[in-house]
Design a protein that fits this description.
Elements (H helix, E strand, L loop, with lengths): L9 H11 L5 E6 L2 E5 H11 L4 E5 L2 E10 L3 H10 L4 E6 L12 E7 L18 E9 L2 E10 L4 E7 L1 H11 L3 E5 L3 H7 L6 E5 L6 H12 L13 H18 L10 E2 L10 H6 L15 H5 L5 H12 L5 H16 L1 H12 L4 H9 L5 H11 L2 H7 L6 H9 L4 H10 L20 H28 L5 E5 L3 E7 L11 E5 L3 E5 L1 H33 L2 H27 L5 E3 L4 E6 L4 H4 L9 E5 L5 E5 L6 H17 L7 E5 L4 E5 L11 H15 L5 E5 L7 H17 L6 E5 L8 H4 L3 E11 L2 E10 L7 H8 L3 H15 L32 H11 L7 H14 L2
Parallel strand pairs: 1-5, 7-10, 9-12, 10-11, 17-21, 20-24, 20-25, 22-23, 23-24
Antiparallel strand pairs: 1-2, 2-4, 3-4, 5-6, 7-8, 8-9, 13-14, 14-16, 15-16, 18-19, 18-21, 25-26
Helix pairs in contact: 6-7, 10-20, 11-20, 12-20, 13-14, 13-20, 14-17, 17-19, 18-19, 26-27
C-alpha cells in the first residue's frame, strides 16, 4: 500500500522516513512501552508472530495497518522473526518523552539479521552461523566467484575466489544462513543457488567496488596490504571480504573488534564435500529428516565444549588433503588413547569451559551481560589446569597446544575482583559489582543502605509518636516515599504532616524529614546504577583488550576437544589408527560402517569386509541381491576414507589410505520437481558432475546407474560410464560400482583394471540368507522376488512374479505366453543361455582375441599369423 507522507501525521512521517532507509527489513518502532509495526511490516508480524492486526489513524491519509507487542517481550518475538528469515531493524527512542519537544527523536540502534545475530536464543551452540558474501569478476573469458564467510558470533573470517561450480560447493558446505549479493547479481544468483536455505540480502552495487573494499579491509586490520592474508592476488575474494565486513559493521552498529584475522580459502589443503556426497553418506543430519538417528557427526561428537563441537563439524565438512597435518592429528589422538590420566581428566576439565568464542564476541559488541563476563572469567581459570594435564604430552599438536595456551591470570583476577559471584543477568537489576572494588561505589551503597534503613526505622518511630499502629511508610514512582494513615486514625495525624493524596479509605502524607531522606536515597540509587554501568563497561573494555589471547585460547581448546572426542570414540568403538600417505593404494581390512554398526541390535554383529584399490585394481563391479549390503559397503568405504582424512581413527582391523582429493557419490533416486528435473535427469546430472570433475586421486561410489530409464538404455549408459572411467587418458579414479545389471560383469574380461565382486548369499528353497560378505566374482541373480516376499507382498503377486520371471529368463521376451509367437524371430536359438551384452559366436570370440592383443608388441610376422587365426574363426 502506498502511503501519502504529505497527508500523514508527524509521527507516521517519521516512521516512514526511517523505514525508507531499511528496505527488505521489518522495522520495530519503539512507542512508549511497545514496539509497533505498520503497513506491510504489520501484516508480516501478524502472520509470523500471531499477534492481533489492527489499524491506526494517519491524519488525512488512509489508516495504516498496526501490530505491536510490549518492549519487554522483544527477546521472545525477535528470534521468531529471525528464524523465519527476516531482517529486523530495532528503532529506539533516543530521548525521554517527558522532555521531548515535539516528536520524540528515534533511530535504528541495531539491525538483526539471520547471518549477523549474536542472540543465544537464535544461535545453535554446536553450529557456526555464517554470513556469506558473493560477488563475481570476469578475467578474460572466465568468470570467478568471490566468496567470503564470516561468523559474527565467533570472529571466524575467510575469503577466496573460485570457478562457479567450486564456489557453489563451498556455499553448500558452509551452509550460510544469509548471503549478501549486489543488486545486479541477485536474480541470477537466486536461480543458481539451488536448495541452499539461506536468506538473500541485496546491497547497492557501489559497495562491491575494489577500491572501497580493499581500503576498508586494510584499515580494519591496520595493515599496509592484504599480502599477509594471501588475498592480494584474488580481487574477487577481496571484494567479497570487504563487502561482508561493511555489512557486518552496518548491522552491528559498532566496530567489530573481534574480527581480528582473515584466512584464505585454499582448495589445495581441503577436500570439499558437495551437498550430494554429504547427504548420501549421511555425514550430517538431513534437514529433510530432522531428528532422525544415524549420521556420522552424531557418532563422532563426544566434544565437551560448544567451540569443539563447531570445529569438529568444520573438520568433517572439510577433510584434509595434505598428509603431514593428518598424521599430526592422528598422533595426537593416539597419545590421548594411550595416556590414561590424560584421557580421563581432559573431558572433565573441558566440560567446565563455556563458549569463549561467543562470549568474547558479545563483549566486543558491547552486548555482554554480567553473567557472560563472569562465565568467561570462570572458563579462563580452567586454562592452567589444562596446561598441567598436557604436561607429559609428546605429540606435536598437544605440545603446541600446551605451550600456546595463555593462563591470563591477571584478567581472571580482575574479573573476580570486579564481579559478584553469580551476578544478575542484567545491569538493570543492580548488585553486579563486588564490594571493595570501587571506594566511590561502596560509599554510595552505604548512603543508599543507611537511608533505606533510616526510613524503615522512621515508620516505627512515627507509630510510637502518633499512637497509630497501622501507620505505614511506603513508596511508589509517582509520589516517592509517603506516610499512609487509614481514615480510622486521621484525627491523630500530627500538625507537621503535609497531606499529599486523599483516598477512599486512607490519606497519604509527607514530612520535610521524609523528603530529605528520600532525596538522599533516590539520588544514591540513581548514582549507584550509573556507576555500576560505568564500572562494568570499563571491565568489558579491559576484557576486550585481551580479545586476541582469548580467541587464541578458544581455538586451541576447541582443537584439543576434537582430539579428546576422537580418542573417546576410538576407545569406545574399537577404532584403529590408519596410515595415510600420498600413495595410490587404499587397503582396508575388516572395515565396518561407523553408523550402521551402532544402530544394529546388541545381538546382531556387524559383518566386516575388506577393500583393495590401486592403479591395477581401479574399478570394482559389485553385484548381488537386494538387501545383501552393497550400498552399506560403498558408504562404509567412503566414510572410512573421510574419517582417516579428518585425522580420526577408523572402524577396521587395519587401514592404509592413499589420499583422495574428492569423494563423489551417486546413490538412490531423487527428483527436483521445482526445477523441472525428473529422477533420471537428476541421476544423469550427478553422473555428469562426477565424470567431468573426478581425477585419478578421486574416489567414486556409484550405487546404481541408469535405473531410472529403460533396461537397455540404462545398461548401455552404465557400460559406457565404466569404460570411460577406465580408458580416460589422464583421469582414472578409484571406483566402486554397485549394480543390478549383471551383464556388467563381462567387462572384467575386456578391461584389465576392472574386478568383479559380489555380496554372498545362501539360498535354501524359497528362502535366502544374506551373509553380508563381499567375495570375488560376479553374481547373476538379484533375488528381488524373495525380498518382495519378505516385505509381505500377497502370495498371488509373488507367484505371478515368478511365472513372469521364468518366461523372461527363457527369453520369451513377454510376460504373456500367447504373445510369444509374435517374437519368435527375436529369440535366441538356445533358450537356456542368458542374454549378454555380446552374443556368443565368432564375433564375440574375435572381440575377445582382439582385446588380448597388444599391437605394439607384435612383429609383422606375428601380426599376419594372428590375422590368419582370426579369419579361421569365421569359417
Amino acid at each position: 500500500m502506498t502511503v501519502s507522507l504529505k497527508d500523514s501525521t508527524p509521527l507516521m512521517r517519521q516512521y516512514f522516513e526511517i523505514k525508507s532507509k531499511y528496505p527488505d527489513t521489518v522495522l520495530l518502532y519503539r512507542m512508549g512501552d511497545f514496539y509497533e509495526t505498520f503497513d506491510e511490516d504489520a501484516r508480516t508480524v501478524h502472520k509470523i508472530l500471531g499477534i492481533t492486526l489492527t489499524k491506526r489513524a494517519n491524519g488525512k491519509a488512509a489508516d495504516v495497518a498496526l501490530a505491536g507487542f510490549p518492549y519487554h517481550a522483544l527477546d521472545s518475538y525477535l528470534p521468531k522473526l529471525i528464524r523465519a528469515g527476516f531482517r529486523v531493524a530495532v528503532c529506539e527512542q533516543l530521548e525521554d518523552p517527558k522532555f521531548a519537544k515535539g516528536i520524540v527523536k528515534r533511530d535504528v540502534t541495531e539491525v538483526v539479521t539471520p547471518g549477523t545475530t549474536l542472540s543465544d536464543k537464535i544461535l545453535e551452540h554446536k553450529s557456526n552461523n555464517y554470513l556469506a558474501c558473493v560477488t563475481s569478476e570476469v578475467v578474460g573469458d572466465q568468470m570467478f566467484i568471490g566468496l567470503a564467510f564470516v561468523d559474527a558470533s565467533t570472529g571466524e573470517f575467510a575469503a577466496g575466489e573460485f570457478p562457479e561450480q567450486e564456489a557453489l560447493a563451498h556455499l553448500q558446505v558452509f551452509a550460510p544462513s544469509e548471503i549478501v549479493v549486489p543488486y545486479s547479481m541477485h536474480g541470477e544468483l537466486k536461480s543458481r543457488l539451488g536448495p541452499i536455505p539461506a536468506v538473500l540480502t541485496r546491497q547497492e552495487d557501489w559497495l562491491f567496488s575494489r577500491d572501497y573494499t580493499y581500503d576498508l579491509l586494510v584499515r580494519h586490520f591496520n595493515t599496509h596490504s592484504l599480502k599477509g592474508f594471501g588475498l592480494e592476488e584474488h580481487p574477487a575474494g577481496i571484494v567479497a571480504a570487504g563487502a561482508a565486513l561493511h555489512y557486518l559493521r552496518e548491522t552491528q552498529r559498532s566496530e567489530v573488534g573481534h574480527i581480528r584475522s582473515l584466512s584464505l580459502l585454499a582448495e589445495s589443503e581441503y577436500m570439499i564435500l558437495d551437498r550430494v556426497t554429504l547427504r548420501n553418506l549421511d555425514v550430517f543430519e538431513d534437514s529433510r529428516l530432522p531428528g532422525r538417528a544415524g549420521n556420522l557427526l552424531s557418532i563422532l561428537d563426544r566434544t565437551r565444549t560448544s567451540m569443539g563441537a563447531r570445529k569438529l563439524k568444520s573438520w568433517i565438512a572439510r577433510p584434509l588433503k595434505v598428509p603431514g597435518p593428518i598424521k599430526e592429528r592422528l598422533d595426537a589422538v593416539q597419545e590421548i588413547v594411550n595416556g590414561r590420566p590424560m584421557s580421563e581428566t581432559l573431558p572433565a576439565r573441558l566440560k567446565e569451559i563455556s563458549d569463549l568464542e561467543r562470549l568474547i564476541s558479545k563483549v566486543c559488541a558491547r552486548r555482554a551481560t554480567p553473567r557472560d563476563v563472569f562465565g568467561l572469567g570462570e572458563s579462563l581459570k580452567i586454562v592452567p589446569s589444562l596446561i598441567a594435564v598436557l604436561h607429559p604430552a609428546s605429540s606435536g599438536p598437544l605440545l603446541r597446544i600446551r605451550d600456546s595456551l595463555k593462563p591470563l591470570d591477571d584478567l581472571t583476577d580482575e574479573i573476580e575482583r570486579a564481579l559478584k559471584a553469580d551476578p544478575p543477568a542484567s545491569l538493570k537489576d543492580g548488585g553486579v559489582i563486588r564490594e571493595g572494588y570501587s571506594a566511590e561505589l561502596d560509599e554510595i551503597r552505604t548512603v543508599a543502605r543507611e537511608g533505606k534503613q533510616y526510613i524503615a526505622n522512621l515508620q516505627q518511630r512515627e507509630r510510637e509518636r502518633t499512637g497509630i499502629g497501622s501507620l505505614k511508610v511506603q513508596y511508589n514512582q509517582v509520589f516517592g516515599y509517603y506516610i499512609e494513615v487509614t481514615n480510622t486514625h486521621k484525627d491523630k495525624v500530627p500538625a507537621d504532616y503535609i497531606r499529599k493524596q486523599t483516598m477512599t479509605h486512607a490519606e497519604r502524607f509527607v514530612t520535610p524529614e521524609l523528603k530529605e531522606y528520600e532525596d538522599k536515597v533516590l539520588h544514591a540509587e540513581e548514582r549507584l546504577v550509573r556507576l555500576e554501568q560505568e564500572l562494568f563497561e570499563q571491565l568489558c573494555g579491559t576484557v576486550a583488550a585481551r580479545t586476541a589471547d582469548i580467541q587464541s585460547n578458544a581455538g586451541l581448546i576447541a582443537e584439543l576437544d576434537c582430539y579428546a572426542s576422537f580418542a573417546e570414540v576410538a576407545v569406545a568403538y574399537k577404532y584403529i589408527k590408519p596410515t595415510v600417505d600420498d600413495g595410490p593404494v587404499i587397503r582396508i581390512e575388516e572395515g565396518r560402517h561407523p553408523v550402521v554398526e551402532r544402530l544394529l541390535p546388541p545381538d546382531e554383529p556387524f559383518i566386516p569386509n575388506d577393500l583393495f584399490l590401486d592403479e591395477q585394481n581401479q574399478i570394482h563391479i559389485i553385484t548381488g541381491p537386494n538387501m545383501a549390503g552393497k550400498s552399506c559397503y560403498l558408504r562404509q568405504v567412503g566414510l572410512i576414507v573421510l574419517l582417516a582424512q579428518i585425522g580420526s581413527f577408523v572402524p577396521a582391523r587395519s587401514a592404509a589410505i592413499g589420499l583422495v582429493d574428492k569423494i563423489f557419490t551417486r546413490v538412490g533416486a531423487s527428483d527436483n520437481m521445482a526445477a523441472g528435473e525428473s529422477t533420471f535427469l537428476v541421476e544423469m546430472n550427478e553422473a555428469a558432475n562426477i565424470l567431468n570433475n573426478a581425477t585419478s586421486r578421486s574416489l567414486i561410489l556409484l550405487d546404481e546407474i541408469g535405473r531410472g530409464t529403460s533396461t537397455f538404455d540404462g545398461l548401455s549408459i552404465a557400460w559406457a560410464i565404466v569404460e570411460h572411467l577406465h580408458i580416460h587418458p589422464s583421469r582414472r579414479p578409484k571406483t566402486l560400482f554397485a549394480t543390478h545389471y549383471h551383464e556388467l560383469v563381462e567387462i572384467e574380461e575386456l578391461l584389465p583394471r576392472v574386478r568383479n565382486y559380489n555380496m554372498e548369499v545362501k539360498k535354501y528353497g524359497d528362502k535366502v540368507v544374506f551373509l553380508r560378505k563381499l567375495v570375488p566374482g560376479g553374481c547373476d541373480h538379484s533375488y528381488g522376488i524373495e525380498v518382495a516376499r519378505l516385505a509381505g507382498l500377497p502370495d498371488g503377486v509373488i507367484e505371478r512374479a515368478r511365472e513372469v520371471m521364468r518366461n523372461l529368463e527363457s527369453h520369451e521376451l513377454s510376460a504373456h505366453k500367447d504373445q510369444n509367437e509374435l517374437l519368435k524371430n527375436l529369440r535366441r536359438t538356445d533358450p537356456t543361455v542368458q542374454m549378454t551384452m555380446f552374443e556368443d559366436g565368432p564375433g564375440q570370440k574375435i572381440k575377445e582375441e582382439l582385446a588380448r592383443i597388444d599391437p605394439d608388441q607384435l612383429t609383422p610376422l606375428e601380426a599376419l599369423n594372428k590375422l590368419s587365426e582370426l579369419k579361421k574363426l569365421l569359417e
